[in-house]
Amino acid sequence: MNLPGPDDPERDRFVLSKGHAALAVYAALHQIGWLTAEQLDTYCGDGSLLGVHPDRDLRGIDFTTGSLGHGLALGAGAALAARMQGSGRRVFVLISDAECNEGSLWESAMFAAHHGLDNLTAILDLNGQQALGYTEQVMDLAPMDQRWVSFGWDVDEVDGHDTAAIVKTVESGEAERSRPHLVIANTVFGYGVSFMQNRLEWHYLPMSDQQYEQALAEVRKAR
Amino acid sequence: MRSAFIGALVHIARQDPRVVLLTGDLGFTVIEPFRDEFPDRFYNAGVAEQNMVGTATGLAEAGFIPFVYSIVTFASLRAYEFVRNGPIAHRLRVRIIGVGGGFDYGTAGFTHYGLEDLGIMRMQPGITVVAPADHRQAVAALNSTYELDGPVYYRIGKDESRMVEGLDGRFELGRADLVLEGEDVLLITIGSIACEVAEAAGRLSAHGVRCSVLVVSSFNPFPVADLREALSRFSTAITIEAHYAAGGLGTAVAEVIADHGIACRLVRRGVNETPLGVTGSSGYMSEIHGLASEALADTVLRTIEELSITNG
Prior knowledge:
The complex is a heterodimer of chains A (223) and B (312).
Chain A (H helix, E strand, L loop, with lengths): L12 E4 L5 H10 L5 H4 L30 H14 L6 E6 L6 H12 L5 E7 L2 E2 L2 E2 H4 L5 H7 L3 E6 L3 H9 L9 E6 L22 H14 L1
Parallel strand pairs in A: 1-2, 2-3, 3-7, 6-7
Antiparallel strand pairs in A: 4-5
Helix pairs in contact in A: 3-4
Chain B lengths: L1 H14 L3 E5 L8 H6 L4 E3 L4 H13 L3 E7 H7 L1 H11 L4 E5 L17 H6 L5 E3 L4 H11 L6 E5 L19 E5 L4 E5 L4 H13 L4 E6 L1 E3 L3 H9 L3 E9 L4 H12 L4 E7 L10 H7 L4 H19 L1
Parallel strand pairs in B: 1-2, 1-3, 3-4, 4-6, 5-6, 8-9, 8-11, 11-12
Antiparallel strand pairs in B: 5-10, 7-9
């Protein structure tokens, strides 16, 4: 992403439409130096701006999210604005697979395709799980790629745990693009932590100290 | 009021390149002047109000002032959460135009009656809510609010010609307008039903009842000071609105009375039941819900009679 600064109007925009994953965004903001370690330590504390879902009052957060089905519309508007202003800004929206249950998301999918928003990229975290079940049991979304193709998007698939591959896929064919781009990131829920992988209950459960140590050890070992 | 409003928006858009108009596939014979003059700043977002408001939020974040246009129910109810989590949460300049409050859509039926928009919008502290009484005031209201910080909701009536006598197109945010001065009873009203109320006041003067008529068009911020002043001068006030009786103007006036301990008896007239099982013209629907001028005049007479018996 082109990120000259959190207040630079020409920065690329990012919308965490699956707002419940804000912790990962905070970590990323820390990595690029927009968030201090002290701020990071306030996560979910009283009086903190770092809640479970992101708040745009925190510098570096472009949009407040947390209600699924909202973010793609925000991204479509941001992408349309960039085009109307003759700007090369790009807009990235991270959506979840379960979020595709929301009708409003498909309104935005249609709008973005109809207006040929080629500066809009949606990355779909396809982990096959939602709060109370596996997506194929709750509201089957397969075949995900064909749904988006039929809605007029360019669709690619990638291993969602391979960051280099994600970057490459996002950027491939960018210059020739005339439609919005969906990157389906195939992921494993709880990836890298043996007792969490593909287990529904870890959408909610807190870790014990012992589980936390084990999880850390497994993740470190895999790096 | 719709055409006057869009006409004024065209004037603003000539000076201000930030203004964009999005419609939820509505506004036939109304929005064309904007579309034809500013094709690059006009979008028919289709029949998809949630996305329309979400897209407008993204546009506003980049510095545009987008107006979204639909019928009251779809603009307010369907997209409500997108208004809350969008322009309100982000304090952005999105303008929502809800067309046709009350029974304006007559024979179109229940799905098209705007009966709770003012209440649900005012409930949110972060949004300006404006309901002009006639087309001249709609233009003044637009001109004085279009650049405000944060979102604005406009309830715009369908009627293009009726005018509230004595209002003369005035509008001031946070103020109410006394368009008729009389000492017997205070009538407080909002939006295009103000014409009916003014007419009712005329009928009542023939019966020897002298009414004051206070028009509230700035619903949020609510004109508390003006209401305190007016309510303190009367023993009886009657609110009249083309809106459910709960949550709208009557409720807001009751809050002022309670908050400030004002000794004024309040009678609230609005729509008291879900209007199902019958349809008809907007005039007919207003009539059967007691909101046409003749029924309103009767209400006032009855109220005064009841009170004089109680007091006597």
